[in-house]
Amino acid sequence: MEFKKLKTTKVLKSKLKIRDIAEYTDYLEEVHTLFGNDLPWFRGQSNISYKLIPSITRSTSWKYSPDDEYELISDFIHKGRLLLPQIARITNHWEWMQLGQHYGLPTRLLDWTESALVALFFAIESEAESPCVWCLNPHMLNELSTNHRLIFFTDSLTREPLDEENILKYEMASKNLPDYPLAFLPNRFDRRMFNQKACFTAHGRKKCGFEELQKSSESPFLIRLDIEPNNIEYIRFQMRTLGISTVDIYPDLDGLSKDIKVFKNMMSQ
Asked: Are the beta carbons of 258 and 246 closer than 8 angstroms?
């Protein structure tokens, strides 16, 4: 399996569009070879034209404002305390930002997963014109953005001084927000986050921080695997046979309802 480099960003992409799980696995082996001992993170997207930027930065007029961010997250905290049973387990602002991100609140966070199959599910879950799965080397990203080749933790009970020193700069309404993204592992206090093997990048002042860092790096830390749109239904079927279904990704009544509908539609074809 071969890759080619995008001229404008130096990002590697799959030379061929992936047609089934076997080809996906073959490309993943190549990704692991390129990343060495660093385990990749993954992100599925329904369109290759979508940039790797957080939802809050997608407005053309966006500019980081600590006051605006504080107001947004604070409003979510004040109004959200009584709505979810896991609120009692939330111990810091990081976890409120993560919860908000998972429920559609615009934040500086971008969702990733440690599971290549979960990312593939998201890439082809809905109507997809040109689906893809992004592969990220989080260790290399953090080396470029913080000079530390490791992944940081935000859990207040387990993080160490080096975690504290670096994540403090990216916290809610930070006055000293760096320019480039930081990769971190969260406390997966929410069932969805746990099932989806959620991890995040916290983004800085530069909207296209990934692209700028990749241009400056001699080695790839971002790789894009393109999926053949005409094979989406077949790949969905393969995913189902491997035991990856909607209720596994969304472990609640909404997910169960969607899963039953998906299965009925699949059996009627």
From this structure: yes
pLDDT in tens, 118-158: 999 999 998 788 999 999 999 999 999 999 999 999 988 88
Gap between the Cα atoms of 16 and 234, Å rounded:
17
Token pair in block for residue 13 = 């992409």
Q: Which of 100, 109, 139 has its CA nearest to residue 199?
A: 109
3-state secondary structure of 150: coil
Q: Could you tell me if residue 7 is inside a domain?
A: no
Ramachandran class of 214: left when φ > 0, alpha when ψ lies in -120 to 50, beta otherwise? alpha
> Which residue carries 């009970």 as its tokens?
157
Residue 5, in any domain of the structure: no
The number of folded domains in the chain is: 1
Nearest Cα neighbor of 197 from 86, 91, 111 is 111
Cut 0.85: pTM above it? yes
Is residue 1, in this structure, part of any structural domain at all? no
3-state secondary structure of 223: strand
